[in-house]
């Protein structure tokens, strides 16, 4: 997992994102900050995604991001029931 985090941080620090994260700062981001970071990455692909997620209803954020990820042919691992089951274990 740490190699994946290191890779993510390295990529986010490069153009076009220039986030200036290190492993500690990235790991300490709050969930909304992580979601905004994902949104910022998606906005590089589709400028219509450039939005402050605090100004959007959570359901709309999910719908908007899921729609774009679907267009990009992203297949999330597992199924929704797998996610629900894992969330119950936390």
TrEMBL record:
Q: Which Pfam families match?
A: IFT81_CH
Subcellular location(s) of the protein:
Cell projection, Cilium
- Which InterPro entries would you find in this protein's record? IFT81, IFT81_CH, IFT81_N_sf
Per UniProt, residues of the IFT81 calponin homology domain are 3-83
Instruction: Give yes or no: UniProt keyword Coiled coil.
Output: yes
Q: Which residues form a coiled coil?
A: none
UniProt entry keywords in alphabetical sequence: Cell projection, Cilium, Cilium biogenesis/degradation, Coiled coil
Family (UniProt): Belongs to the IFT81 family.
Q: Which PANTHER family match?
A: INTRAFLAGELLAR TRANSPORT PROTEIN 81 HOMOLOG
Protein known as: Intraflagellar transport protein 81
Task: Please give the organism.
Answer: Characodon lateralis
């Amino acid at each position: 997992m740490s190699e994946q985090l290191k890779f993510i941080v390295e990529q986010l620090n490069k153009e076009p994102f220039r986030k200036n994260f290190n492993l500690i700062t990235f790991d300490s981001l709050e969930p909304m900050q992580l979601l905004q970071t994902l949104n910022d990455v998606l906005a590089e692909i589709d400028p219509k995604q450039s939005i402050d997620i605090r100004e959007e209803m959570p359901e709309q954020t999910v719908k908007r991001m899921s729609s774009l990820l679907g267009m990009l042919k992203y297949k999330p691992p597992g199924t929704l029931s797998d996610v629900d089951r894992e969330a119950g274990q936390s």
